[in-house]
Structures are given as structure tokens and as C-alpha cells.
Protein 1
Amino acid sequence: MISLEKKQLVLIEYNQHNMSQRQIAEKLKMSRNTVKKYIEQDLAARQQDTRNLPITDNYVTSPAYKKRNGKKRALTNTVMKRIREMMKQNKNKREVNMHKQQLKIIDIHEKLLDEGFKIGYTTVRNFVNREEKKEKEVFIRQEPTAGREIEFDWGEVKLFIDGKLRSLSMAVFTLAYSNDRYARLYESETMVCVQDAHVKCIEALGFVPNVFTYDNMRTVVKNFIGYDRFITDGMKSLSLHYHFQIRLCQPRKGNEKGHVERSVEYIRRKAFAHRDTFTSLEEAQEYLVSIIEKLNQRPHYLKEKTHHELMLEEKAERAGSLTAAPFDPAELVELRVDKYSTVTYRHNRYSVPEGHVGEYIKLKARAEEVLLFSEGECIAKHKRSWQVHVWVMNIYHYLNTLQKKKGALAQSECLSQAPKQIKNIYQRYYIGNEKDFLELLVYTKERDCLARVLEVITELEKNPLVQLTTEKIIFLAEQSAEVRTVLTGQDDVASQSLDNLSSLAALFHSKGTGVVH
């Protein structure tokens, strides 16, 4: 192999000094055939117009031997045909959602060896990569328009709620045009939660985008028949109520809703990477709302406005789209009240006010609460439990029964689930005196004045000389704030006066209602 300098000398001697090929070979001590080859290459290159070809006129390239395309001895036509057959099997499996059972390249290589072919893994890998490269997907860049599309997806979040590690689902919406985001935490991904997330998102935005985009989640797609997909009844009802269209991504094509795919990871990291401990789910919800508001005030990476400002443009574009009343995302069932005065819904029991045992009532279950109806009237409301085999009790539902069975109060489930303030009152002042405690609860229920009763108890606790009784609490709760302030002074005279007034109040106290007249 000659050097680049010798090649240049050959061409200079031939073109400028008019030397023959033989003379050049003798002078440069080279083979005449080599001299002939480079002269002929130069003449051919000068005649070729390369302006429309993917090559350039390069005269400074060092001479190189031609690469010979040797015959492939291991990768024969038979082997290539067999590899393509196995690759086709993989493609068929992907089309029927069996992508986890595909053959990897190492599996294809082992199969070829089992069939008697002598071929290396590297050869198989290179051939498979070349074949797959022919089918590489091409992506089309989109330019969203204001108010047209919003994308929805779920993301998992693990938080410490009241000291316990819990796995929650975060519903995330992202407007394609503005990248404005909305998110909310849920304890499940059922239809009720999906609908509730949509209702709250639409209320927060103040308008209804024209198209909602989803992947093939089970709460949106009811079933597949061939290439056809059928929408669930719950999502049909929601879309008909708000008059929006539903667009479904192709299976395993998350890029078709790329805004929200990125938003799930982005919000989860920005919100909960720095803080993951909360006293309640409500506190976590409030914290998430504050983070979302901050993120939406950031500028868009392409447009010279914040996400919130761009969202307002979308709202103006879709003005008048939100005319319907809020959709009611709930499940309505009819249940029978059992002997414990509870109804069982999804493996959990919810207490019912006394007097309905054996009757059929209607239960309306929402994402965060459960309502109980009898003859069209709401008789009870509970916070919904998403666990199983849980008793959700309200102590006010059992007051009449407890007055007859006072000994059952101390170990009752309803007392253990009562508000912390009520349990503290019982444990401090009423253990062994359940009758007076229940009278106090009857009073707070009928007057709906638990907060006022707690204030009175706090004032009475300031004077250690005053004995705390139900009669005193009820009497003071009925008085005005001025009288209560005078009577709760710290001197002995006021304390004695308080005892005297309480005694008088007890004389006129109605045992039936627990109210001073």
C-alpha cells in the first residue's frame, strides 16, 4: 500500500510533466500496475458529476484496499429464513398483548443451535438488529391547539399517612396546549374515582376541553373485539353529560399522550420527593394543590407565558362549554339494615341511625363519602373506607340503645371510633357514670353544639375547684358568652355561685331531652 504523498506524485508527474506510466514507475520505484490503477481512478473521478450524489470530490483520502464481500458461511439463506420466522412469531405475540412471552435474541440463538445450525450469538444479534431497524417507527410532531385536548393518566404515590405507609393513586390531567396540570390523590382507581377526578378537574379549569385522551385502562375500555374497542358505560355517561369526545391511544403507545406521561413523573417528583409524611389524606391533598399551583405559574418551555396564562387562553377559546350542572360520580345500591343497625357495602359495614333494622335503604357511594337514604331523605353520612372488613360507626346512631344498655358503652366499637374529644371527655370524667355521659351526647346531638360544649368544658377545667357535671355543662352551654365569662371567674365566690346555679338548673332539668328550661 503506497502513501498519500506517493499517490499525489504519480498524478502530478502524469498530468503536469507528461511522463508515461512506465517512466513514473521507474522513477518512484513502484509497480506499473499500481501507477496505472491510480491514474485510471483519477481520470474516472474527474468525469463524474458528484453534485447530486452522496459523495464529495476528496483527493486527500489515503489509498486503501478494497473490502471484499466474502461469502457468509454461517448466516445462510436457510438460517436467515428461520430467524425471520421467529421474529414474525414475536410480532404476532405483540399484537395479542403477549409481549412478555417473546423470544429474546439469546433465545433465538439457542433455538438455532438446538436445530443443528452452527452460528455465533454475535452474528444472530447483528442480523436481528438490521431486520428490526427496517421497521423502526417514525414519529410525527404535533402542534396542539388551544382548548382542544386534555390527557389523563394514573400514577402511584407512596406516602406516610398518620404514621402508616400507604400506596395511593394520583389522577393527573395535562392540557396539551398549555401544559397546565391538575392532580388529586385517591385510594382507588375505580370508575367512581375516575369520574370524580374528571368532575373536580373540570370545575378547577372552568371549561370542558373538546377531547379527552386515555390509554386502554379498564375503567375506560370495556373490552376488545379484534381491533375494535368499546367504551365503558360510566365514561359514556360522563362524556355525554359534559359533551366531550374520547380518544384512545394505540396499545402500548404512551407517546400518543406524552404530555401527561411526563407530568405523572414530574408532579410526583416535585411534590413528594421532598415531603412524604402527612397527618391525614386531606393534608396531603392540600399540599398537592399548593405544589400544582406553583408549577402552573412557571413559564412554558416554548411560549413566553406561564402555563396558567396559556390555560386562560384555552378557557377563553372554550367559553360557554361548561353549562351543565356538576356530574354526580356515585354508585347507588339498595341494602338491608342488619341487626347491628349497619349495612354492608363492598365488605365494609356502615352504621345506620336506630329505627331502621330490617328495612331496605339506599346507599350512595362516592369516591370520598357514603350517603344513606330512607324514603328519599338522607339519614346518615360517612367517610368512605377503601379497606376491607372495616366497621365505620357513628356513636350518635346508637344513643337510645346505649341508654338501655349502658354497660356496653365502654367496649363498644362506636365509642372507639368517636371523635377524639368525645373519648377524652368520657375517659376523664365519666367512666362509671355512663348515664350522664349519654345525656350529654343526646344534648350535643339534638342541639348540634359539640363545639360549644367543648368550649364550656375547657373553661370549667381552668378552675380546679369546680366539679364537672353534665348539668353544669348543659347550663353553661345554654348561656350567652357574657354570662359564661362572668361565671367562670377564678375566685371562690364565682365558683360557689356556679355550684348554686347548677343545682337550680338540675331541679328543672328535663330528663327526656337533657335541656334546661
Protein 2
Amino acid sequence: MTDTISSTGAPMQNTRLTARALLLGDRLDVAGLERSDVLSTTPLAFRAGQDGFVALFRYGVAVLVGLTPLEEDEIIRGLRQRIQGEFSRHEEETAIIEISPDRDDQIPPGGPIYIKQLSTERLIVIADALSKSATLARDEREATAAFELVEPSVEHLAQKGRRPRDRRKILKHVGRALLVRQRMSGRVAVEEKPDVLWDRPDLERLYARLEDEYELKERATALHRKLEVLGDTAQALTDIIDTERSLRLELIIVLLILFEIFITFYQMFTGASGH
């Protein structure tokens, strides 16, 4: 594909662009968002502003490239009705893109993302990596918060050999932890590569470098393990509560049986004394 051009039809002149991935909410409804300047449908990408580019991902992320703050605000306002479960705080991942015809596509440590040519496909590849990084950042924070909720109960169990007395509070924390796990499961498949690579396998190396730079695979693996531990911990706490409840019921049944035996013997004794 040819170089990306601005909304005015002229080639983009900037050699340095700022790319921002904003996690706006749980989902972003892009159905029916028809535009005459669509560059891609998966993700939905189009030109915006004077020299800008926007990519929208269904898992709640908007990636804005080369836009002014006013243009960014305008885009976000236009998307507000399409955001499902909007977050009060928008997770953000920012990168600098530098167009350098004399360099290969590369990302030096701590430096900008160098690209040989500013094309729609390259921007989509970069947007994909940034959107996944922003999503992982929020999921990591939520998973950590869920761990902090159940940790006191686990520590009490380890130190005292029994669960804390406030069963309702434990169940509330377990419920929140399971809710976090459910919300994160299947939100975004970090391991999946962007569809554009099917048509542009020459950009595989750029995507691999972005994966390494943002540690996407490592973070996704660590998050999945944390979610598994979180689920196992929640299950263990609920099992303990269920076991205690079962033991309590069994004790009540035993006491009722003993009471019935006592009544039977008492009636037999009083009946024998009457004769």
C-alpha cells in the first residue's frame, strides 16, 4: 500500500509522531461506524484531523496517532456513545514514531519506534501492540488489587489455621476476585498477531520487535498464571466455608439424633417406672 496521506490528500510531512493507545472501556462498539476514509476494517482504522490516524479495537482501545490534543478530545467525544463500561480512568500507552528512510524498522532501547516508511500497515501493526500493552496494564493492576483483597484471608488461614470469622466479608472479596477473573478472561488474545501480517509478512519483524519491547507474551503468561492462582485461591476459600457449613449441619444432625435417643430412653424409663 502507498504511504498514508493526510485528510487533505497531501503526503504527511511530520517525521516524528506521537501514538497514544487509550483503553476507554470494556468494549467499543464499532458496528455501523461507516466512513468514507476507512483504511482498515480489522481494526477499524481511518484518517482524522490534519495528519492523523485512528485505529479502534473492539476490546475498548482507541489508538490515536499524529493528532493534536483538541483532535484527540474530539475523537473521544465522538466515541463516547459507543463505549460499553467506560472506565473513569483511561489506561494509556504512549510511543514516539520516527520516520527514518535510512533505517530499517527498529526499536532501540529507550528510543522511539523507527520505521522506514509511514504506511497504513505499519501504523496498524504499531497500534495493535500499543493497544494490547494498554489492556494488559489495566488487567495487571486489577489482578493485583484482587490479590490484595483475598490476601488477608489467606494469611489469617496460614497463621491461625482457620478462616477469619467474617464469612460475608470473605465471600464478598472472593466474589470480586472472581469477577475480575471473568472480566479479563478472553478480553484480548495477546498471542494473536494482527490480521495485516497475512498480507504483509515483511512486517513480521517489526511486530516481533514491538512484542519484545512491550513484553507482551511474558506479561500475558504471567497474568494468566496470576488469574489461575486467583481462581484456585477463591475456590479454596469457598470450599473451606462449604466444609465448615457441612460440618456444622452434620453436628446439628448428630445432636438431634442424640436428643431423639435421649427422649426415647426417657419415655421408656418413665413408662417402666409407671408400671
Protein 3
Amino acid sequence: MEDHGIPAADGNPGDIEISIVSAPTTHMHDHRRLPNGCNIVCPFSDREQGSPESEERSKSVKKLFGLMVFCAIIMVVEIFGGIKANSLAILSDAAHLLTDVTGLAISLFAAWASGWEPTSRHSFGFHRLEVLGAFVSVQIIWLISGVLIYEAVHRILHKSERVDGRLMFITAAFGFLINLVMFMWVGHDHHHHPHSSCKHGDHHHHHHEHNNKVCNLANETQESEEEEETDLLSSSNEKTKRILNINLQGAYLHIVADLIQSMGVMIAGAVIWGAPRLLVVDLISTLIFSVLVVSTTVPLLRNIIGVLMERVPSEIDLSSLKDGLKSIKGVHHIHDLHVWSITVGKFVMSCHVVPEPNVSSSELLARIKDYCKRTCRIHHVTIQIE
């Protein structure tokens, strides 16, 4: 759906969706054609992937699911063990595991929900369910941690009840061993995770209209001036694989934290086992670990609020992006520039463009689309030509 003959400065403003405008190419991929005849896959839909991508995604999802099951087993054991031993430290460790379980569950749900096609009433798809699920999980974790902190303070101010140090130690040791198994299992992928990228078609030389640093995307490789064109579907596949790999790396860090916390609870249990009167060790451990659990959710809550408030993503410098768009050949002025996130990592942009005289609208749109995709990985852009 290209338009090469309509001048941009014709005096008739119109809303133009960049995602349906493509730069002229000498080839067409049949797999990019949607049932309605549109030649470009919507950035918010997730079409069936090829065999290599599907296998990579399936492997990552299975590993995430396995980690979630392991964490859930430890959590259940520690809940029963903590109640039986009357140890708040064990229960606070279980609360920390709850953050891992919910985080992994949200990651898996996001990978599953990304395959849901947008509907007429949910045109952006269901990606924000991930954000809402994370928000609910944070509230649950804060509630549980608040109850544990209250109970610990209550026991400190009043006569503490007896704690079974032996059972506390055994329960923590069980959690430590399972965490060690997960550490060794995930550790291999953490140090040897793939860094592949799909490349298709011929080489195309891209002119860098703006040299300033527009985006600061973590774990992103800067593209050279001589790069290969990657179609939107392949880019989406790579993004899914990259997000899953990042989730595995995040799970690795959580496992390390769980190992340290389990070791701390083991030490506290050993102390109480040897000196039953030192019950304050259990309470101090509870306070420390509960504060640790709450603190780990703060960055997540900050991201959630940012998405719901449609804040400019932290990876994007809006002023630099605007300067870069202005420097594109054929652009006279940019105003009403907005960038926000549908969910973490899925960026959307809209703006008004005042073009220079006698500039083809389709060519100008293709340049803007290419610039946004290369510099900030913004694949869904809406432009109003004035």
C-alpha cells in the first residue's frame, strides 16, 4: 500500500499509519501478507515463527516453566516448614520465592498472550495484561511482607514464641539445595546464551541523518551504517527471543539472591538450634529479608507506573529523537511528538510532520519509519502530514 505520487505538502492533512507504508523494494515476502491483503504484519500481532525461532522460543519457555515449578515447590515446602517451625524468617524466604514465581508466571503469560491477535475492541492487542498482572503481584507481595514485618515487630515487643531451630535449618537447607540445582541448570545458559540475529535480503546503505545518541537500549548491539534489512516479522521473532533470554538472565540473578537468603536462614536456624533462647535472630532475619523483598519490587513498580502513565520510555531521549527526525531529508518541522509504551519494550510514537515542498509523502514516511526502527526500535508509528 505505497503512495509514491502524492506530494506531502498538498494542503490536506491526513492521518497516515507508518506500519502500512514500506520503502520500495525489489522483492516481496509472501509470508508477510495478512488475510485482509495488507502486506505488512501488524507490530502487535505474533505470527507463526519458522522452525529455528520456534524451537528457540519453546526451549526458553520450557526452561522458564521448569524454574517456576522448582520455585513453587520450594515455596510450598517453606510455607509448611515455616508454620511448623514457627519461623518468620522461613516465611519471609517463602515470600521472596513468591516474587520469583509470580515474575516467572508473568513472563510465561506474556509469551503466551503475545500470540493473541488484536480485536476490534482491543486494537493494540493484550500486551498490557502483563503490566496489570505485575501490578497485582506487587500488591500481594507488599501485603504479605507487611504482615510478616508486623508479626516480627509484635514478637520483639512481646514475649517471643518458641522457634524450632532444627526444622528451620532443615527447611532452609532444602531450599538451598534446590536453588543450587537451579543455579547450575540456568548458569550454563546464562554464560552461553545465544546472540544470534536474523538477516534477510540484500544489503542496503542507510544514511544516518542524526549522529546524536537517541536511545540507550540495554543489551542492544549498535547497528553499523552498512546493515542488512530485516523485515518486521523477523524483527518481532528476534525481539521475542531476546526478551525470553533476558528473562532467563533475570531468573539467574533471582536464584543467586535466593541462594544467599537461604544460606542466611540456614545460619539463623543453626544459631537457634544451638541456642534456643536466641529467638531474636529469627526476627531480625525476618525484618531484613522482608525489607529486601519489598525493595526488589520497587523498580518493577516504577516501570508499571511509567507504562500506565504513558511516560516516555527511559531508553529514549525525546529531545534527541525530535532533533534526529528534523534532520531527515524532506522534514521541515516536527511537533506534537509523543512516545509511550504499550508494555515494557513495545514502543509507540505519533507526531505531526511539516514537510518541505515537493516531497513525496510515501518516501518521507519510509525514511521516518526506518529511522525510528533503527535508532529506537519503534515499530508502530503514526504520522500526520501537514
